[in-house]
Write a structure and sequence with these properties.
Distance between the termini: 24 Å
Radius of gyration: 19 Å
Largest sheet: none
Strand content: under 5%
Number of helices: 13
Number of strands: 0
Length: about 300
């Protein structure tokens, strides 16, 4: 990748490793739906003035179906799942489980019709990564949360594995800011009725308010603009490399800020999931045929997200 590609990758990986901490702080005082609504509303309000410049939202003409599909898979579904899961799950574990995105992308590729041969290294990577997830789910689980909470994070990871394929296939010619602002506005409008119907809501403390503002401004508005530029710079395949940076940041912040325990089981699970994901998403050798199929669009990083 180019220097610009690596810079964008590192920036998105770090920024998207922070939301797990902020979500954990916020859901202690407000509902998961409120977290998603405030986060996306702030992001949309910040980006809409820039999106309306020049051609405005006319650039979205003919792209509404893939745009809505992308919003559903990347934001509407995953963010409520993550916020709800973190009511019981440690922020570090949430970030760690999101590192399964490359593994899920490989599996999705097989399910939707990819029939390229998968080498022994990649199959081994799948098994190793799944062993890491099993360590978080098994008896005496290291996750610190219920199996349903873990399942919700894994469902969010399915969305994260699918969304970049849509962006790369159908949205590459749409400018990042109008696309991001519209996806966030659609999500905010989707959750507004939920927030209104579940009210009234108590005003949160300053810590929760600051967490929500940071989620909307930095981890949503800024991060998505950088993410779309990353996809344009390196492609959807390599863009999923952020999934390897997120858990490192999430585990570190969980330990430093929230005093979440970093046990031996967590360390081993981290190593298994990251190594398994790296092996499972290994690019084919140059001598092997490598058509631009659905799996490649999902994840084919070289040298190895999300919230």
């Amino acid at each position: 990748m180019t220097r610009r590609g690596w810079t964008l990758l590192l920036a998105v990986g770090v920024i998207w490793g922070i939301p797990y901490l902020l979500i954990k702080i916020a859901v202690g005082e407000v509902t998961p739906a409120m977290v998603v609504f405030v986060r996306t509303a702030i992001g949309a309000l910040l980006l809409l003035p820039f999106a309306l410049r020049g051609g405005g939202l006319r650039v979205l003409h003919g792209h509404w179906r893939p745009l809505l599909a992308f919003a559903a898979l990347e934001i509407i579904g995953p963010w409520i799942l993550l916020s709800n899961a973190e009511t019981t799950l440690a922020s570090s574990t949430t970030g760690l489980l999101i590192a399964t995105v490359p593994i899920i992308a490989v599996v999705l590729g097989r399910l939707v019709g990819d029939r390229r041969p998968v080498g022994a290294i990649r199959w081994t990577g799948l098994l190793v990564g799944l062993a890491g997830v099993g360590l978080l789910l098994g008896p005496g689980a290291a996750s610190g949360g219920s199996p349903w909470a873990v399942a919700q994070v894994l469902l969010a990871a399915v969305g994260y594995a699918s969304a970049p394929m849509i962006a790369d296939l159908f949205l590459r010619d749409v400018p990042a800011i109008p696309l991001t602002a519209t996806c966030l506005a659609v999500t905010a409008m989707f959750y507004l009725p939920v927030v209104l119907l579940t009210g009234p809501h108590a005003w949160p403390t300053l810590d929760a308010v600051l967490a929500l503002i940071a989620l909307g401004a930095a981890c949503t508005a800024l991060a998505f603009v950088l993410f779309f530029r990353l996809i344009l710079e390196v492609g959807a395949a390599r863009s999923t490399l952020v999934a390897y940076l997120n858990p490192v940041v999430a585990v570190a912040l969980g330990a430093l800020v929230l005093d979440e325990a970093v046990t031996i089981a967590v360390v081993v699970a981290t190593a298994l999931i990251l190594l398994g994901s790296a092996a499972a998403s290994r690019r084919s050798r140059p001598s092997e045929p490598a058509p631009r199929d659905i799996e490649e669009l999902a994840v084919q990083p070289e040298g190895v997200p999300p919230g």
